[in-house]
Design goal:
This is Transmembrane protein. The protein is mostly helical. The chain is built from 8 helices and no strands. The chain starts with a helix and ends in a 10-residue tail after the last helix.
Length: 187
Amino acid sequence: MATETAPARHSHTWISALNSRYHKAALGLYLVIVIAHWAEHVSQAIQLYVLGWPLPEARGVLGVPFPWLVKSEWMHYGYALLMLIGLILLRKGFTGRSRTWWNVSLGIQVWHHFEHLLLLLQALTGSNLLGRPVPTSIIQLIVPRVELHLFYNAIVFLPMVVAMVLHRRPRGSERAAMRCGCAPAHA
């Protein structure tokens, strides 16, 4: 009987530790990953709209020396999945208003992940949405891919930042419910 509950207890303990004593460090690492990805999208937009590079050459910072990265649906899907997992795993550490904003970010990322899953499935099967020549997401039928993914990353990132700011500046009731040390002590 004890062996049956041990894996569940270990998992619960790991997630509890992630959302309590390691929450601040985990959020910091997660934020570095998110900002690095954001930098790729912003640099691609600068390459396109400021420097006037043609779309095939505007591949972001890492895509210039490694062009296959931009064309890899696995890489894009993997990042969308990593974002989703991070939002889910770190969610329990948030309370009150910050949890609400984190949930908004999570909800948007669920859709963003779905769109990347759709793109990946098209790339794997060779059967593209509405017979398009390349894998195409649903909203991409209306908005070009570069602009769409810049937008998606913005609307996931903004509520995430609001959540982190509110988490670091909790109200009294939110502070009382917190299990992590993310908020500075009262002055």
